[in-house]
Specification:
heterodimer; A: alpha/beta; Aspartate Aminotransferase, domain 1; Aspartate Aminotransferase, domain 2; 2 domains; four-stranded antiparallel β-sheet; 13 helices; globular; B: about 500 residues; seven-stranded mixed β-sheet
């Protein structure tokens, strides 16, 4: 086996030196009848060249990324990933190391996390950000559990325009907590109908996504005002954080906890993961936060450095009283995002956000001027919008796929009543020619 | 203070570059990116979005750097880290084995990396087949009936498994309140049970470090939903009564959750499914060689018996008329525990690894991992206390009992190991071993590296006797010394803030 440095001869020698007859002797604490007496039914070992061929063949059974165009968003976005992201995260000192429990030999990871936490604070307008959660959906579930720890209330007001899979995850997490969800419907603008918000002193938090699942930008400031009036927290959710390059930050609008999916920050779609859960809150709640926090520290010589801090919230110390059971987070993907944000930088983030806005506006205008097509919602948008289609959106997607265009997401996948609604996303990666081709085929 | 490093053979110090925070490196006007020129007609931003929704801070404080500076920044940071490619990383229970490079190549193949999770199923047949294949391979390795890949990490898998147990018991009309967890367990076990709404009760281990059957017999009643058990357990021993334990739990209406963190001791040698376990998770980032990435991403697939299969998270990949499709019609499912289908990129790496090894390779791994742990135990047992003598499997747990008399703790030994060029072993658990040093070499270590480790451990024991003061201030050769973590927690500084002169 090419991953085992000790040859069979060396291993035999080691056994002999230890006075052990056979390797089997090490396994006698496993009752004999439980030890396998035949090989597992697995494919025979592949050579490296065979593996490459095998996986290339499998990858080719997906749609060919080089000859196709996609307008899919809905929580996962097609943004350009600067080449140096993979160069840098492939430094094996980064990717083959563990959670930085030994700060003297993990300052690279620790400083990068500190930089990530700082950048997330700037972008979200919050005071504390953690080292990451699994993804946006689980970050939201943890945020709701945190809100409950803060105010002990049991009702959650949740926007119907939240990503439906995030809601499903939340429902699973809340099953054994006795907490309940109350839906806030969306209005004709595509925004959550905050005027119908009915909350009281039982409400732990209001959950609003912006831009929401339909691409509409929400009035987070109004949501915060309403939530705070009832003594509830505002949890803001963002699945497309590139929008932060242009839009007012959730913290500036008054959010108490901000969660987001960080995939848009330089992480490949990779069929759903791994991604990056972004989690930030006000400083007053930092001791209720889940996950790992990195703080600045001084060593015995007076050097600045970084360590895991406030760990008394965590499972390895608090066990069943911990604020969360999370242990592993998304370290390497946190690093990817940090490299992305550093490379794009202040001006790049503004420019990429602006390009998304302009291209989506162009596409929305072009599609909605087609016979039979219109925009379903009137609220301002970032890079996604819902098109009202003359026939079922699922049919349109199907027929355009044969032209190697993935036209978007039929909303009926999640909202069965919305058969003639197509969610379209346009990013800086979609050229005018691609948008024009989509428009031509829709006609 | 004398600081004699003449015994250190594996490493010598060399310069490492200083590097400021990225924000301190930022220079106004520098750029590290270039986008294509916008090719659509543009509209005034204010006409598209009401200005009340727009940012007014001009993204002040976000860094501005040219590409070479970004590359230098993160490259310098990387040199301050220690990884498994650097050297032996005997962090017990974490299985810091070699991360094969072919896995990285496969996960980055364009057809996989660019695949959007909401593609029409017919456009994602390759991805769906990978998921299907991974489930089959893991089911065979664990001896269980069905597998979900949705959990993003081990603790997430634990949660999924306990939720399924809860759902099954509810379906039986026999909701229960408690989960039993041995006192040797990893901290995530009790944290998970609590999050799933259960009261946690500890089960004490017997004098051999194994689950105390008599104690279990006493404590297992109709209020107990499940036992969470790590096997081999966290003192590195196989729970030889595993079948009796499962039988007892089942007879009294409970279930057995197995934490599969230590599967590197069992792969292709024995299968939890054959032992009577009901549900378990595996850590692909341990046993299946996917990189730990400085703390994730991992993946924590959950494998279950036939009885529990209907409760697996939704959706599942099934094969229908020769095509792979996502099945959402799962009325008894606990629901979704993560958006989309889990950490697909990690699963891909694990599949690549399983196919690289095959059954024989997996067995050779397991045997070598166990041999290596026993080799280290053999050479150090006269010097370091092994609190629970028994058949050592893939890791050996020492304690600092003998070094304590010189005032030296496991922490000091660990920090001194850094000077000798090693990553320290695990110390934070098992709680039943005071001053523990959990050493897991994995199959990836050769004899030469292990001999250096053994030498280092012996030498540190000598230093404990000769110069304990020196050990208490180790490490001495790193670019930073020990940190004042108490002060850091008292006044937490969790983000960089611009000083007046740096404000833009």
């Amino acid at each position: 086996m090419r991953y085992i440095p000790n040859s069979a001869e060396e291993r035999a020698k080691m056994l002999a030196e230890m006075g052990v007859q056979s390797i089997e002797d090490f396994f006698t604490s496993i009752p004999a009848h439980l030890r396998l007496d035949k090989p597992l039914n697995l494919p025979p070992a592949y050579a490296e060249s065979e593996l490459i061929k095998f996986f290339k063949n499998l990858a080719a059974r997906n749609i060919d990324p080089n000859s196709s165009t996609s307008f899919l968003g809905a929580g996962v976005y097609n943004h350009f990933r600067p080449v140096i992201i993979d160069t840098l995260i492939s430094r094996s000192e980064f990717y083959t190391t563990y959670t930085p429990y030994q700060p003297e030999i993990a300052q690279g990871t620790l400083q990068a996390i500190f930089e990530f936490q700082s950048m997330i604070c700037f972008l979200t307008g919050m005071e504390v950000a953690n080292a990451s959660m699994y993804d946006g959906s689980t970050a939201l579930a943890e945020a709701v559990l945190m809100a409950n720890r803060i105010n002990r209330r049991k009702k959650v007001a949740i926007s119907q325009a939240l990503h439906p899979e995030y809601r499903q995850v939340l429902e699973t997490y809340l099953k054994s907590t006795g907490m309940t969800l109350e839906t806030i419907a969306f209005g004709t603008s595509g925004q959550t109908a905050l005027d119908s918000l009915d909350i009281n002193d039982q409400t732990t938090a209001v959950i609003i996504q912006s831009p929401n699942f339909f691409g509409s930008i929400e009035d987070l400031e109004l949501a915060a005002e309403k939530a705070h009036k009832a003594g509830a927290l505002l949890i803001s959710v963002t699945t497309e954080p590139i929008s932060w390059g242009l839009l007012r930050s959730p913290g500036d609008c008054g959010a108490d906890i901000v969660v987001a999916e960080g995939q848009a920050f330089g992480i490949a779609p990779s069929y759903g993961g791994p991604y990056l859960g972004i989690f930030a809150s006000r400083a007053q709640y930092q001791r209720q936060m889940p996950g790992r926090l990195i703080g600045q520290a001084q060593d015995t010589y007076g050097n600045r450095g970084f360590v895991i801090t406030l760990a008394t919230r965590e499972q390895h110390i608090r066990r069943e009283k911990a604020s969360s059971n999370i242990c592993t987070n998304q370290g390497l993907f946190m690093l990817m995002a940090t490299v992305y944000l550093s490379t794009m930088g202040r001006r790049g983030l503004q420019e990429v956000a602006l390009q998304n806005l302009q291209k989506a506006a162009y596409a929305a205008q072009a599609i909605s001027s087609l016979e039979g097509y219109s925009l379903l919602f009137s609220a301002p948008r970032f890079n996604e919008f819902v098109v009202k289609t003359p026939r079922p959106a699922a049919e349109i997607v199907k027929s355009l796929t044969s032209h190697n265009i993935v036209a978007g997401l039929p909303l009926s996948n999640y909202y069965p009543d919305m058969t003639n609604a197509l969610l379209v996303c346009v990013t800086e990666q979609n050229t005018r020619a691609e948008i024009d081709a989509l428009v031509a085929l829709l006609q | 203070m004398s600081n004699d490093n003449s015994r250190i053979k594996k490493v010598r110090t060399h310069i490492s570059q200083n590097e400021s925070l990225i924000f301190e490196r930022s220079r106004s006007g520098a750029v590290g990116y270039k986008l294509p020129k916008i090719d659509v007609p543009t509209t005034e931003v204010n006409e598209l979005v009401n200005s009340k929704y727009l940012r007014t801070d001009d993204l002040a404080n976000m860094p501005e750097l040219a590409e070479p500076d970004v590359v230098r920044h993160f490259t310098r940071l990387s040199t301050w880290n220690y990884g498994t490619d650097t050297g032996m990383f005997p962090l017990g229970s974490c299985t810091m084995k070699y991360n094969p490079k072919i896995n990285e190549l496969v996960a980055r193949l364009e057809g996989f990396a660019t695949a959007h999770p909401l593609l029409p199923e017919e456009s994602a047949q390759g991805c769906l087949e990978v998921i299907y294949l991974a489930e089959q391979l893991l089911a065979e390795i664990t001896g269980m009936a069905a597998v979900t890949l949705q959990p993003a990490a081990g603790a997430h898998g634990e949660m999924t498994g306990i939720m399924m147990i809860r759902a099954l018991l509810a379906c039986r009309g026999d909701a229960r309140k408690k989960v039993l967890i041995p006192d040797s367990a990893h901290g995530t076990n009790p944290a998970t049970a609590a999050i799933c709404g259960y009261t946690v009760e500890g089960i004490r281990s017997n004098e051999r470090g194994l689950t105390d059957l008599a104690e279990l017999e006493k404590r297992m009643d109709d209020s107990v939903a499940a036992l969470m058990l790590t096997n081999p357990n966290t003192v590195g021993l196989f729970e030889e009564n595993i079948e009796k334990i499962c039988k007892l739990m089942h007879e009294r209406g409970g279930l057995v959750y197995m934490d599969g963190a230590n599967m590197n001791a069992l792969c292709a040698v024995a299968r939890p499914g054959d032992m009577g376990v009901d549900v378990m998770h595996m850590n692909l980032h341990k046993t299946m060689s996917t990189p730990h990435g400085g703390g994730g991403p991992g993946a924590g697939p959950v494998a279950v018996t036939k009885e529990l299969a209907p409760y697996l998270p939704s959706p599942m990949v099934i094969k229908q008329d020769g095509k792979f499709v996502l099945d959402y019609n799962r009325p008894q499912s606990i629901g979704r525990i993560r958006a989309f289908y889990g950490n697909f990129g990690v699963v891909l790496r694990a599949v690549c690894y399983m196919l690289t090894l095959g059954s024989e390779g997996l067995r050779e791994n397991t045997e070598t991992a166990v041999l290596n742990a026993n080799y280290i135990a053999h050479h150090l047992r006269d010097i370091y206390e092994i609190p629970y003598e028994g058949k050592i499997m893939h890791e050996v747990i020492f304690s600092d009992k003998r070094q304590k008399k010189y005032g030296i703790t496991n922490g000091d030994i660990a920090k001194r190991l850094i000077d000798y060029g090693f990553h320290p072993p695990t110390m934070s658990f098992p709680l039943i071993v005071p001053g523990s040093l959990m050493v897991e070499p994995t199959e990836s270590e050769g004899r030469e590296e292990m001999d250096l480790f053994i030498d280092a451990m012996k030498s540190i024991d000598k230093e404990a006797q000769e110069n304990p003061e020196m050990l208490k201030h180790a490490p001495h050769t790193t670019r930073v010394g020990r940190f004042d973590e108490v002060a850091a927690a008292r006044n937490p500084v969790l983000r960089w803030q611009a000083t007046k002169s740096e404000e833009k």
